[in-house]
Amino acid sequence: xxxxxxxxxxxxxxxxxxxxxxxxxxxxxxxxxxxxxxxxxxxxxxxxxxxxxxxxxxxxxxxxxxxxxxxxxxxxxxxxxxxxxxxxxxxxxxxxxxxxxxxxxxxxxxxxxxxxxxxxxxxxxxxxxxxxxxxxxxxxxxxxxxxxxxxxxxxxxxxxxxxxxxxxxxxxxxxxxxxxxxxxxxxxxxxxxxxxxxxxxxxxxxxxxxxxxxxxxxxxxxxxxxxxxxxxxxxxxxxxxxxxxxxxxxxxxxxxxxxxxxxxxxxxxxxxxxxxxxxxxxxxxxxxxxxxxxxxxxxxxxxxxxxxxxxxxxxxxxxxxxxxxxxxxxxxxxxxxxxxxxxxxxxxxxxxxxxxxxxxxxxxxxxxxxxxxxxxxxxxxxxxxxxxxxxxxxxxxxxxxxxxxxxxxxxxxxxxxxxxxxx
Length: 423
Known about the structure:
It contains 17 helices and no strands. The protein is mainly α. The longest helix has 27 residues, at 368-394.
């Protein structure tokens, strides 16, 4: 933009802003033009955006910012008056078009103040919302009361509770930060909600889908449920094996995503080891699928809604406890003590020990290599625990292949871990 301005005479150096405003108006108006019932199309939206930039320009020159409000009032009144005129069988109440036109005016004002990138993003997002009306309506109609409750609960956790919490360190060793703790809760709940929502709508479409989504929501719950299915139904044993192995493979992807969000500087050290577990585990899962040839109708996987307040508060408490214990152990017993915490806490919950260790890393209390060692030890402990669970609930004859699949994941992790340590 600045290069273009340099070629223009000084009195026209604001012309590119007007051009951008027209283009944004044309973009939004293009979608409305396709709607026969809309009373505003290409020209109206382009002129409205241009009007917004002009009014903002005049307000800046005259130092009368109230002109912007007057322009907004005039634009809105014009469209409201147009839609109040009785037209038979119009089929469009006009509220969407009026709202879009007022937003278009605001984007024109935004362009004048040189927030062009923001204006472009908002224009594209608005146009997408207008264009995908049938798809959005279809999603809304398919949402059940339970789905709406999940969305509202997640909104409460992320948009109401989180902003109210102080972003300061409290407690022993300064390890407790209410905002950071709840942000981690929102992160875990959000990832779980994506898997939970997908699982509710695709839960019976195949073992691969159930395994992958079940691992995203809770690999422990998936292992527990399908071990029981295998014990009750002989025909389900082979399907259960594949689902359990896939769910525990997804755990590595989940932990990789958490590390990327919370401590991206650790990716170079952690990802090669996780990739080793994924590679060998995927080969084991493929071999098991080829050998077992599982088939049969998928049962429903019952998992807890991750947005439930009780679940969220329980995870927050667990995370805070492990965070304090880890900080205390690191201060008293050093790294070896943290390895012991990883082995114990990783048995039942990988997210809490992983995130607490990443938090200590961000506080410079542990090194990157120590974090990787702690996370890998926790994963191995978790795999041992779930292998024992599968054998205890499903029996050796039915679950030995699932244990072999989880063993393949562990073998890949250990091999990559040793290779990384030797380099």
